[in-house]
Design brief:
single chain; 150 residues; alpha+beta; two-stranded antiparallel ribbon; 2 strands; 12% strand; globular; Oxidoreductase; oxidoreductase activity
Length: 150
Amino acid sequence: MMTSRKTVSAVLNHYDPINGPKYMNLSAAEVHSYKWTPVPVEITDIRSCDEDFTLDKNGFQLVEHKVDLSACADDASIREKLYPQLEEMLKRVTGATHAKASAHMVRESTIADLKARAERADSPLEVLPPGPATNVHVDKPHPFPLHSHS
């Protein structure tokens, strides 16, 4: 039985690469004060058409995987308990013989809290706790290591 695709209209905040630097590494306070370009988009909930997306064809796919949430209590628990679960799931789905989880970010602040803290900050470079993403971005360490031998 074919399920109809579910979409939602949204506005995503994009960085304008023509009028700015090629790469950006902004603190949370800077992200909230940066001038983003709003772009209206239609977002498809791929749970309504997950069979259409495969790792080979799209570079991603939706995988059902139950996670032990007690593994998410703090950064150490995430590394010690959740990383191995995710590595095993990645190997199972891809057929890989090795997988390495290497970074995570827990977003737990609200946008209102981050804005209030940014206004009270002594410096625009003050590091604030991660909150909901307010712009289109890629979360990755810079520079990202291509190989890890641990």
